[in-house]
Structure formats: structure tokens, C-alpha cells
């Protein structure tokens, strides 16, 4: 497939056509009041719709149904954002984290078992964080004890987004309690219908309950569901992180630029409280130009990361740079949106399910932006990673216990 | 973190002894308020929404009449004491009708020409018998929202001698719970007046406006051809335009007091958490990323406290230049409060982002506070108007 | 920190192989430039002022004619290659006339209608025989500074057929060392043209304008009734207004390239220092306050590099929409460079604040770069003009 | 002395009268091209002028010639700033650091010897920092060896501002090399004419040479010049820090508000490059209002610190709060000044000697602002102090050597 300017223009026209025909009209209103079941049904239906168009897993290898060049993916995500298409929220872990783990470290059997299933709607959840292991995954306490042909898992997971609807879980658990902290951890695929498993939703700061606690009491995982070698789980998790990051961010950057920021500008074109329009206020203009510039930088950064990842030239901290920058830029942008939107913004009490991180319910979007600066390694942790792995600065000395 | 510099002003105090006495008084008031609010604030009901502080507790505390003259059974105190209470309410992120009744309601009444109706109402508010809300501009647009004209028999049977009121105001604090509403209105000659109506008067509609911050009660007040008797249209005691400005300054500063209180609470909670939560084998507060962020919060709060103290002193002493100090305090403190609450959420890590963790309550309240009664940019624009031409005496005192 | 993403553009490359070849070419160019500049830049003379890079070295390197067509003995390359050199000159904070001659001079000449006089001059510049400076607006005000009208015998004896030039331009880069000056002027019908004068022509005055940044040479060019022959008034090849805009974009972007280079150098120096300097028994780079500040510098530079690459690609390919990418790059990179150099000074501690430490050279250069050819606010204002009304195709590609 | 509103107004009128009569006309131009000798002569003359007016050492105790209430000092500094009076640069360490050390920890003999001398123009320098002890004074290597009736000092000091003109030096030196880091340091008064002492100016980033290195080779200090007990020098230095900070900042805050910021606003009232005035640009207005607000906060903070210090209620990190906040606010303000002043600001190649930190030569002022964020404990160190002493956060764990 070529990515010349002409080919991309043609592809864009094709996606535009598709979006005009397939993006559901007025889904926002319905999803704003949707219950859980409606949300799941809508997500599954939209995923299949995208799949029919060939747009569900563009980032997967061609043999599994993807194979779209990064430049085309950018166009796809731009158009989906510009046409206000629903986002794949429920299947996010499935098509990104689960798939990239299976592709990078799974067995042929695991891939054959799960990749087609994901295309058919299998939902995954990530089971990494724990109460005592937030940013410090080395503090993981969940154990997986070898027993016969499998492992028996006990422990507790936190911040497992979407666990209530998940079929499968990417699980990190400690298989060698005696090993040093980052060693002795293994990576499993866990069936969420296993006995001994209890899922409880946790309400987040924005009032949504997609995060869950997962309680694990003697859950049995067959040995064939181990990913990579025993005790190498931390390394497996790290290795897939960079790949995931680039691909997920490609979409999110275009959403921020072509949905979130565009709505913000449109909102500023409406009448301002004291008369006139906000967009004609030089203070607002200045800030909009600054944010647009930063978002343009983000978009280029994300594309660059994907390209370098494909070329095998990505730096050891590139994924952290993108995560940190996106998180804080999202937060800054939403903060500004809250400020310019004034009091009426505070009356938006629910954001539509299936929407992006910037839904237009700016106050909730701003609060939701901490879901980016905290989970998956806080901004503070990302800065440490960038300093140490990206710049080679000396590590924090180890403190005697 | 004990009470630092600039605990709300010393207006009216002229000797060092007076200043010390007042400080002591404020300290006592603060301790009582903090203790009471700790016991009652922060509870949620079956619907998980915050339960307001019991009105009888507020009435019993004497806080509702702090600024009501002693002869009307109030405490005869000033805004400096009200500021202490507001600050504690903010620290507790308490849900209460204090702002609507005791701060805006009493504040508006005290700006009016004295009279039997006004005095009666002041006494009733001080006693907690009547709850008020004041319908005044709540955002950046300070256009006066209501209009009064002489009522004609076409407006209502026997309306002669009365007045007809029209207009609408959004985001009126504590409107839904108010027994009486004070509407800031323009009379037929364009002079601001205050009109007293009741929520169930014909032509008056009060609609709740739920906001993301569940600790605040806001409402839209729509008045469509309501007819009131002449005794319910009250004149301001001095320059009416100036009086409205003072009322708006009071509202803005009251929110700033609240915001400083909640920022302090967030810093304390973060310091506590950082001292106990361990990651990588150490309390997270021993890491510079956390420690230095807390230090920055401390600096912001220290500066905000000084600016707020200056604003409170100016308002409490009816300083004609109070607007400058108010706009400085409102713009600085309310931005700082959002930033501090946001940092608190960040430094609390995962727990900070849960509903249970409670940090979100403060962040939402800070965000609403930043928008209420003039966004920071609006207050800065007001300050900047002074820069256009050299002043007679350019000294910033 | 090796060469990261987006090393200056790939304009003109249409296949992946071309892109790879161009990357390799840029890498070589960069390595040669870095090596050469390391050896020569940063020296100071007896007066402690920086000594410019030897002109013969620049001429010998072939960099002066990078954008000069091959038939005029240039390299026939594009702005993408010039950007690589500019970036390295910035990294070295080198004093050189490269910008005036090879970037602005050649850039201006290439925008003109081809002709013998122009081509001769291009060849002479490529060979290093003639040094140029271009007098164009250097700040936020982009009013064209010179005017031309037909000369009359009153202007000079035998001036018939020639032209008279008047005007003044400040902060002209490399003016004092130039053999010839290209003045951006308006002709009597208000159409922009370029007038070639020599510094010693009657009526032409070039005065050095020393600035805090000693690595740059700036001058004021005053032309008071200078008379030139008709062959020295040159027309632009395409839309003259558009051509001036492109020349200004080129100037702004050239400074941004320089600023990214110096920011990179400052980050590297800081990382080196932080890895070796010890305080409190540890290398200071192991403290989060230092480490996280370096991480922020790295992020800023990474983002700036992408924005710059987009600007360079747009200018190198004569994209008619290049202005957007240029204003983004100029505003972002030049602010970032000041912040990075400032942080570098801070993190170097005491040594960072000494003259000897050398950080100040970079900070001063970054500050001047931020102001040259449009301050960040001016470029943001230009970007913001696009927001006023919805675009036909709103996609930001 | 009373500080009622009326009394302050009367005092203000008196200071204004004095300023109009005594502030030298056009001193800036002369001081911009002044050589070293002219600078010193001008400073000494101005100090005596202020002394005659009773304004040289208002912060000293009444018995030594001061005794002015803080509220009056504020008025004094406001008027001096507003009348663009020269600053006491050369005598700064003498009237602040030296005096407060002598008052707090000196002997009666030391006070009687030096305080009147300072009033007569005795110049002091602070000898604290060393090459290996920048922000970490505990790393001090200069030694003072007991020998007979005195101490023999060897070592090197850095960043000693004004050492070239100094008569005396406040010296920290290690008297017990075996003691833990912050112990074993003593505090001395050192005569700068002592044999074995060599002073070399160090050029700073702004091109000025007031900083010096001091080389100490067998310099003899008589025992009577010890301040406080042997090995308690670090504590003496710390104890006087807070007092100094408040008093010095009171002046600097008023300078920033009533000289620096005012000039900035005036500059913005002039014609802007593209026509119109900068002060009418809402972006500039917004920033000016923000800076003015922050400066108002600074001024109140400084007065508060002095008052709390007098009342004995100052918090353990109050001095650090003021230093950190002033430093960074000065830097932000100067950065903005550079930005709005545009290209012409870059042609100001020298700032007038005897001027404040904001001289109107904005580029040099901005660069000079790092003299506040680095020496005297960097901003990073101040944040650590605030976190640990002000908020009680846990200290960085000690790393095994």
C-alpha cells in the first residue's frame, strides 16, 4: 500500500464517505443516558460496524486483519474524530494491550485462540495495579502458586478498567516471592469466568464506575495461559508497552486535535457572556493558538513514535514522553475549556458513554484527565523514566530497608 | 501547618491591643467552627449527595447574624468574622445555605436604607427563622438581571401602588432553600434597587440548577410579571451603583475565602497522605517530586492568604478602593485553589482519583468557585483598567 | 541523546528509499558540521568577545551555496539541508555570517526573477566571494522599511534612468560584514521589490547595533537618497507580497532551527553536569528536582523538534500554507529554548551563573532569537486569525 | 512611635520631601559608565546621605540608630523606590547580614567595635560558599586550626559578593574536621586586610564582577573574632537567616512593586511596534494584572514575615517561602519585560551600578535574576526546606556513602 499524497487523499475520501454513511446519528444523546447494557451493546455493534469497514484493527498485522500504514491510520483517526464517531472504549484493551501482548509474546495457540475472538467481540481487562503497587509495580503482592498443571492465584487487583464486562484478563502475579522485586513476576491470560473471582466496581472522581477491583481467591489458571517464560512477566509487560503506546496515542492525539480542540474553538465562536465572541478576545486567541500548536506537536510526536517503532529505532523513553506529554496537554486543554465555558459548563452532569476524553462536558472531562496523569505510571514516574532511561541520569540511590 | 500570617484582617482595630484581641476572637471562632463542621460536614445521604449542615446548628451558632447589628439581636461584628466562618466552611467543603443568607442576604440588607421591613428581616435572618437568597449576576456579565416598573391594574387586580418585576437570573446561590428572595433590579429610571419576593409569589419561579459540584445549591430565578407591594421595593442607602458593586465584591470575596479554606484542607490532606503512603520502600513525601510540589502549594496558599486578608480588611472597613484588593484576592486565590486541589488529586495517586477518596469534592468546588462572581480573567481585566493612564499617586500601597 | 525524531524534513523525497537517502545525507552533513564547529566556535578574542567562524571555512564547506542551483556552482539542495547547518550553528552558539548570506541572502535572491545580475551574485555568494545581508523587518512590525522612486537629476548628477532609495531598517543580521545589501522595498506603485546597494554607496549608512548576545552581529541600515542604477532594482518572480511573506517565514524558521540546536546543547550540558556534580553525597542528577526538570526539557525539545521538522518540510517544499507550520515552530521552539537555557543555568548552580561557565551565552542567544522575526505572541496571533471563522475543511492535517 | 494611618501619611510626606531634596539627579547615567572607584565613592556618599536623613539603618534597634516600625519602613522603601533612589548595594551585607549576626550572636565588644564602624562606612562581605559547598553548606572544606590565641584559616571561598571592596568578612570555617557535617563549623569575623588573603573577581553571567573568589592561606584570626561558641557556626548562621531575610526583602519587594513594575507599565504605555500601545493589548493587560497581584502578595508576605519575626511567631520555613517566591517572581517579571520590550531591549549593554534588581535594562535584569534563584540556597533547596521544616514531610533518606 502506498502513502503518497494522492493515495492518502483518495483514502480520506473513502473514509469520509464511510463515516457519513455509518456514524450513528445522535448517538451522544442516547449514550448520555445509557445504562450499562445499552453501552455494551452499542460498543459491540459499533465495533462490528468498524470491522465491516475494515477500520476496527488497522494497526494489527495484515495477516490478522490489519496492516494499514501509519499515515493512513492517521487519516482514519482524523476523519473518525472529525465526524464525531463513537470511540471504542470497551474494546480498547482488547485491540491494543491484549493484542500487542499476544503478538509480541504469545504462543501460536494463544494467538489463534484469542485474536479472532477479539475481532468477534471478546473483551479484555488489564490486571496490573494493586493497592500496594500503584506506580511501583515492583510492589506486586498477588501470587500465583504452581499446582499441578496450572497456577493458583490469590490477591487483589485495582483500577481494572472495564473488568465488569471483561471475558479475559491480562494478569501479572508473583510466581517467585523470594526473587528480587521486579523479578519473580509472571504474565497470565486469565478467564474472567473462573471460579474464585469477584469483581466490584469502584466509582471514580468523575462519577463513573468503569474501574473495578478484582478479588482473586484460589483462581486456577491453566499453564498454557502463561505468556512468556515463568518469572519474566515484568519484562513481557515492559516490552509491549512502547508498541501499545504509540498505536493508542495515534488515535487519541487526533481525537484531541480534531474533536476536542475543534469543539473548543467552535464554543469560543458562540456569543460570550458580556457580548461579543470569545474567539475575538486576544487573550483567548493567544491561548487557543498555543494549545493548537502543542496539539500539532503531539500529533507529530505520536506518528513519529509509531514510525520509529516500526523501524526499530524508538528510544527507551519515547513511550513515556508521549504518555506524559499527552496527559498533561489534555489536562491543560480541558482546564482552559472549563475556564472559558464559564458557569454553564458546570451544569453538564454526565458525559456521554462511548465518547472521547474530551466529550464537551468540560468539567467532567477536566476531572477525567487525571485518569491519564495517574494510572499507567503517574506523570512523576514518567519523568523519572525519561530522566533515567532517556537521558541516562543516575538512578535514585537504593535506600537500606 | 498552624494558622499563618494574615488571618482575616483587623478592620476596626486601631491599637495593637485591639488587633491582638481581634486575633484571639478569630482564633476562637475558627476553632469552634472547625470543630462543629468536622462533626457535621461531609456526610452523604442515601442518594450519595452531600447532606447540608443542619440549619438549626447554624442558627444556634450565632454565625447567621454575625454582621447583624446588636440591636437586632445580631453579633454586631464585621465581614472579618464572617470571613473566618466562610474559610472554615470551605475547609470542610460543607454544604450549607450560609453564603446565601448570612453573607449575601445580610450584606444586601445592610446596604439598604434602614427601615422597619428591612430590620425585621435582618433580625429574622440572624435568628435563623428566614433563609435568604440574593439574585445577582453570578458570572462575568454583571448586567443587572431584573427590572421594576409601576404595576397597573392590567398586571394584577388591585395592583395600584405596587410594582411589577420581570427578569431572570441564573446560578443564584441557595435559591431553592430560600424563604425569601432579594432581587437586584433596576427601577424605571435605571437606578438599582432591591426587590423582596417569595418563591411562591405568583410570577416567581425558582428552579434548581444542579451542578457538578454537589456541595453547592444553585438555582435559576425567573420573575415574569410578579407584582409586589411598594414596601417590598427597597432603596440602597448610599450610591446605588456603588452599592451593587460592593455587593458583588462581597460575593466574590466570600467565594475566595471558601477557596482558600479548601486549598488549605487539600494541602494538609496531601501532606498527611505523603507522610504515610509508601512506594519504592519510602514514604512518598520523602521524594522531591512530592515534597517540592507540596512546597509550591504551601507558597501559593501563603501568598493567597495575604491577598485574601487584604481583601477582607478592605471590605470589612468599607474601603472605597476595596475592589482592587477583592479582584486580586479572587483571581489569585481561586486559580490557586484549583491548582492545589488538582495537585492534591495527582499526589494522592490512584486513591485520589476515586470517588471514595473525596479529593474530587474539593476539586469540583474549587472549579465552581473559580467561575462564580467573575472568572480570574474578568477580575484581572478590572485590575488592568488602572494601568491605561498614570495615576495621580502611583504608589501601590 | 542521539538524533531523535523528525530530523529536518524530507522535502522532495517521494519514495521510502529517497527518504532514507536524505536522512543519511543529513546525518553526514550534521556530523561534519558538528565536528567543524566544535573546533572553531566558542573562541573569544582579546576583548573577550566571540570570534566568528572563519569565513574561508564556511566557503570551503560548501554550506554557503547549499540552496544555490548546481549550474551556478551551488549544491542544488533545499532549505532542509540549510536547516541542518543552522541547527548545528545554534548548538555551537557559533558566531558567523551564515544567516545573512546563505539563508536570507540566497533565499531572497532565489525568490527573484532570474537574471544575469542575480545569477552572478548567487554564484559569488556560493563561492564565498560576496557576503550579503538582507534588510527586512526584524521584529513584530512587518512594515516594509524602504521605498524606491525614479531618480531625478536633483537626486544625483546623471541619475536619469536610475532609482532613488530611502528608508531605514534596524536589527539587520550580519549587516556590518556584508559586501552587498539587499533592501526589501516598495516601488512607487506599492509593490515589493529588492534593491541591491553597497555599504559604501553614497547615502547608505550601516551602523553596528551591539546587543547583549555577543554571538550575533546586528546593524542598522539607513538609506537616505541613495541612487542606484535600474539594474539594481529587482522584481520578485511570483506574487511579490507572498514572496516577502515567504522570506519572513524563512527568517523566522531559520532562527527557530538555531534555537532548537542551542536548546539541545543546553540539555546535553546539563545532563553531563548533573551526572558528575555531587552534592549531599550523590550526583545531583539522581535527585528528582534535577532529573524531572531534565525530563521536562527533553519533552519540550522533542515536541519542538517535531514542529520544527514540519516547518522545515513546508518551507523546503514551497508549501503555500507553510506560514502555519512556521508560526507554530517559531513560537514553540523559541519559547522552549529560553526556558531550557534558563533551566540549564539554574541546574548548573553557581557555575551556571558565572561568565566562565558559558551558559549565559546560550541564554542570551535564545532570548534574542525569541524576539527576532516575530515574538511568540505575534506568531500566535497570526495562527489565531484562522480561528475566527470555520474553515472549509477544518481538519488539521 | 505610632503607626496609625495619619502618622504614616505624615511620615510619607516627610520622606517624599526628603527624597525630592536628596535623591541625586540623573545618577543613573553616571552610574552606567562608572568605574569601580566612582561606584564605591557614590555608594559611600549615598549611605551617609541616608544616614543624615535617619534612613540608613531603619531596621536596626533604636539604641544603634534604627528603631523604625515595620509599617514605616514599608513607607520609606516605597518612597525611595518611587523616587528612583540609588540602592545601598555596597553596604547591603554590612547593614543586614553583618549587623544581624552581631546583634543576635556577637559579643558586646564586637558590636561596639563594628556597628558604629558600619555606620561610618565599613564594608562587609559574606564568606560562606565554596567550590564544593554550593547549596550544601555541610560540604564546607575551609579549615580554621586553633593556634595559640587565634585560628589559622586555609581554604577558598566563592561567590563572595563585593569582596574586592570589603573591610571585613563573615566567615564560616571548619574547626572540627572529625565532627559530622553540619557540626564542627565555626563563625568568624575576618579582617580583609589580613596577610595570606587573596581576592579575585569572578565575572557573572550578566558581565559584572562583583562576585569574588577569596583564597585563604594561613590567615590568622584572633580568638576574640569568633562569633558564638566554637563548632556552633552553622547554627549561628541559620539563626540569623530568618531575621535578615525579612528585613532585606521588605525593601526588595517595594522596589519590585514601586520601581520595577511601575517602569514596566510605563514602558507598556509607550507606542507599540505595530501601532497602538501595548498597555491596550488585552494579553499584556492580563499579564500585568497577574504580575501586579503577585507583587502585592509578595509585599504583604514580606511585611508579615517582619511582623511575625518581631512577635516571635515566624514559622521555620517562612524565610524560605519569601526567598523562593521573590526569586521566581522577579524572574517571571523580568522575563515578561524582556518579551514585551522587544528587540530594542537587547541593545542595553550595561545596567547602572547602584540600581535595583530591575534596572530597566531588562535583558540583563532577567539574566541577573538567576543571582536570586541560585545563590543563598537554590530554589530547589528552598523547596526542600519548605517541605521538610515548613510542612514536616519526611527527609530524603541518608544514602550509605
TrEMBL record, chains A, D:
Gene Ontology MF terms in the entry: flavin adenine dinucleotide binding; oxidoreductase activity, acting on the CH-CH group of donors
UniProt cofactor(s): FAD
All residue ranges annotated as the Acyl-CoA dehydrogenase/oxidase C-terminal domain in the record: 231-390
InterPro entries noted in UniProt: Acyl-CoA_Oxase/DH_mid-dom (IPR006091), Acyl-CoA_Oxase/DH_mid-dom_sf (IPR046373), AcylCo_DH-like_C (IPR036250), AcylCo_DH/oxidase_C (IPR009075), AcylCoA_DH/ox_N (IPR013786), AcylCoA_DH/ox_N_sf (IPR037069), AcylCoA_DH/oxidase_NM_dom_sf (IPR009100), Mycobact_Acyl-CoA_DH (IPR052161)
Keyword vocabulary terms for this entry: FAD, Flavoprotein, Oxidoreductase
A Pfam family: Acyl-CoA_dh_N
GO cellular component assignments: plasma membrane
Gene3D superfamilies: Acyl-CoA dehydrogenase/oxidase, N-terminal domain, Butyryl-CoA Dehydrogenase, subunit A, domain 2, Butyryl-CoA Dehydrogenase, subunit A, domain 3
All copies of domain Acyl-CoA oxidase/dehydrogenase middle, residue ranges: 127-218
Family membership: Belongs to the acyl-CoA dehydrogenase family.
Protein's name according to its UniProt entry: Acyl-CoA dehydrogenase
Native source organism of the sequence: Parafrankia soli
TrEMBL record, chains B, C:
Region Disordered, residue ranges: 1-20
SUPFAM superfamilies found in the cross-reference section: Acyl-CoA dehydrogenase C-terminal domain-like, Acyl-CoA dehydrogenase NM domain-like
Thylakoid as UniProt keyword: no
Cofactor: FAD
InterPro entries per UniProt: Acyl-CoA_Oxase/DH_mid-dom_sf, AcylCo_DH-like_C, AcylCo_DH/oxidase_C, AcylCoA_DH/ox_N, AcylCoA_DH/ox_N_sf, AcylCoA_DH/oxidase_NM_dom_sf
Segments of skewed composition (Low complexity): 1-16
Gene3D superfamilies from the UniProt entry: Acyl-CoA dehydrogenase/oxidase, N-terminal domain, Butyryl-CoA Dehydrogenase, subunit A, domain 2, Butyryl-CoA Dehydrogenase, subunit A, domain 3
Gene Ontology MF: a single term: acyl-CoA dehydrogenase activity
Family: Belongs to the acyl-CoA dehydrogenase family.
Protein name per UniProt: Acyl-CoA dehydrogenase
Highest classification ranks of the organism: Bacteria, Bacillati, Actinomycetota, Actinomycetes, Frankiales
